[in-house]
Write the structure tokens for this entry.
Amino acid sequence: MSAEATNPVSAAEAATTDVAVRRRGRARIDLRRLGRAALLGATAGPAPRDRLPDAIGHVAEAHRAHHPEADLTVLGRAYVLAESSHRGQFRKSGEAYITHPLAVTLILAELGAETTTLTASLLHDTVEDTEVTLDQVRREFGDEVAYLVDGVTKVEKIDYGAAAEPETFRKMLVATGSDVRVMSIKLADRLHNMRTLGVMRPEKQARIAKVTRDVLIPLAERLGVQALKTELEDLVFSILHPEEYETTRALIADNPGAATALDGVADQVAAVLREADIGAEVLVRPRHFVSVHRVRLKRGELRGCDFGRLLVLVAEDADCYAVLGELHTCFTPVISEFKDFIAAPKFNLYQSLHTAIAAPDGAVAEVLIRTHRMHKVAEAGVVALGNPHVGQEPDGAAAPGTGTDDGERVDPTRPGWLSRLLDWQQSAPDPDTFWTSLRADLAEDDEITVFRADGSAPGTISLPAGASCVDAAYAQHGEAAHACLGARVNGRLAPLSTVLGDGDTVQLLLAQDTVSGPSPEWLDHARTPAARIAITGWLRAHPESAAPPAAPRDPRPQVSVPADRRSGAELHAEPVDGEPPAAARPAGCCTPVPPDEITGFRVRGGSVTVHRARCSAVDAMRGLGREPVTVRWGDTPQGRVTLVAESFGRPGLLADLTEAIAGFGAAVVSANVEPPSEQRVRHTYTLHLPDAAGLAALMRAMRDVPGVYDVSRARHSGGLG
């Protein structure tokens, strides 16, 4: 561990001060000075009614920058209560404890959080660590603030032990499920704790940093709070990888002129956009430490433009594409670097156009193009969306689904991945399973959206990239997916192992019985924790299903019903070249029945084989120069036909199919059942129909049998006779 990481402040300040220096025009807030101001405020007595206490002046300034009309009096009252209740409490660093809620609130204020969130942030430790009660908070600040404080309080103080960590984060997810602002406060809380982590033992620093890396940083990414995520990444980097951190820090320090290279490209871009009469703000955006480290690993030696990116801010969505067109026209674009996250936003609300251009001098610069509102959401994520329960969207439109008839709170800003976490965490049988599944789920960086073919609401399913039909089944049907037999993907039959792509349409096919269940092989295709936990639970409850199926003795199709020689429909063939009429019989490849359009061909022995007019054998016979024979149906309505039923294997399927056939008075001449392949079974039936006109109805009845997804006339080649 480096000296920076063990010093109470130097590691945190080194990581954040360097970043602040590279962010032009943004002075670093001295949290220690805020702490001294808090102590002065405590000794000097309460502030006059007409102004805020000096200790939260920075908070008020940052808040007013985002919300000019905000009423700051409630923040003053919240600070007075927090300061008085925490008076006499100190952090391990020796600072007054009030500096912690102040710092957390300042972080959120800089991100643009609304007043209610800041008020709850100031009070987030009072109910847990002082004699202040939740009822007192409710009386003085209202139900909304009390709700948030209660949600944060339910997440007990983390002692960072191996056993306590999983349950702590389970509680945090449950609390966040009702209001994402709870998670926002906890993430800001963790950021300030990471800034002051140097007072702890090195082994404890490493343990906290690993949990932050594995869970908190991915959560910040999922919520879109990039400003918070990047600083957490740098702080974790300095603790877990001190040597690489020092190398990166020195690399940045040794290239003070790196920004100059980007300044030149920025000036050229700004000039091009001015000439095109596009109003835009062009900024140089330095990379943070971890980003520089990743670029160095990817590209090796770094050039000046690699230490940052250009950010182009415009007013409207259409302007983004106008800027893109100008850049690709006036500069040489690097096509492989282009990504459109406006038309297809990331799962964490992020929207931007990404591209890279080569300037005339050969310098290659990455460019981000977005509107001012996109930039706010990109930096602050859900924090920038404000209060999700006031019935207003960020643009002022009415927010759908902000409440239910039974009073349950509904958060319209809650993303799909959070809903999935909340669903499967309830089924996790033990803390270890939950912890392992949580870390695996958060490790998924990309998300896809698939559409439900049945058109029912909601019409889409959000899944992690790489998810299969198994995952879609459990996401849509929960434990009912145990009876899933297969799926249609984009209208075509597909095995459950099929990996889904973004925009696919999925129709999941379920058995009607309750006997069916998943096989152990499903675990090989399940990507989501919800699917894996549900499948594992079912297999544990049904250990007999986990045993591998016995291999079939004979891989050849098994004939379950012997063939007979009963006649089919009456056929007549016209005489050819004065020869007597020949006997006509239906071809086995297509088994025509009245009123099919038919044609015949003479075969060896002088008889005529009759095919359906569209049978592939007809084209083959003509290709051999065989002349067709005119044939017609007689007056007998009976007929013989071969049907192929495609189905998913399940108990009792053969009995149900034969029952459906018998219901139409059809006699089974022969029946072949092929061994299952990927849970799919093919049944081939040759049937004698008392009335061929009922064939269509019979096929519909067979398709209605649970597990059967298609029934068709036989199309196999029956030979050329």
Notes: The mean pLDDT is 74. The first strand starts at residue 281 and ends at 286. Residues 563 and 669 are 5 Å apart (CA to CA).
